[in-house]
Amino acid sequence: MFSCHLCSKAYATEKYLQMHLAIHKDFTISSQSQTFTCNYCFKTFTQSSNYKNHIRTHSDDRPYICDICDIGFKERYHLKKHILFKHSTEAKEKCRYCGKRFKDSTAVRAHERIHSDKRPYSCQRCLKAFKTSECLWHHENRSR
Fold first, then answer.
1. Which residue numbers delimit the C2H2-type domain (predicted)?
2. Residue 24 in contact with residue 41, Cβ under 8 Å?
3. How much is the pLDDT for 91?
4. Which helix (H) or strand (E) holds 55?
């Protein structure tokens, strides 16, 4: 195991440890590691794949095409979410409290808050707290 000297997280390989070390802001990547810098916004990356994905945000390139409706996406993840929400009826995720089914874990976790007293979203003006970001958004836009 390879452990981070800054936060003690352990990794199976030195490569994974090196990738992890890049997230620590005070850590400088060694000269033997290559960095990739975006010429548009000067953001830097330690992996070429992340750099290539980032560069696409500055272009109109949409290489991930939906086979069903031909809409293009800049990232594979967005294509997968599109297919799940627009072209699928599967609902694999289930609420632990009431059994209601959802298409993804983000939706089920947001739903599960209705069964609890947690209110993690607060209005900056009046400090009223809400269970979902959507409820906060509606509150902020109604009270303008």
1. 2-24, 36-63, 64-92, 93-120
2. no
3. 93
4. helix 48-56
